[in-house]
Amino acid sequence: MDDYSDLRPARQARNITLTSAAQHLGVWPTVISRLERGLQRHDTLATNYRHWLNTHQIDAA
């Protein structure tokens, strides 16, 4: 899969910061940002990121 357009909306819907996501995944925030914007391809990271996002409840705040 090389379409990462779902990642940023999923992260934002859960009120997870770019920094928090990056820390959890062990990468720099710029890597997550570039992945979300489709500027960098990394299928394994995207799969792990998507799985992590899908295991978090959406924050209704």
From TrEMBL:
Gene3D superfamilies linked: lambda repressor-like DNA-binding domains
Annotated signal sequence range: none
GO molecular function: DNA binding
The protein, known as: Transposase
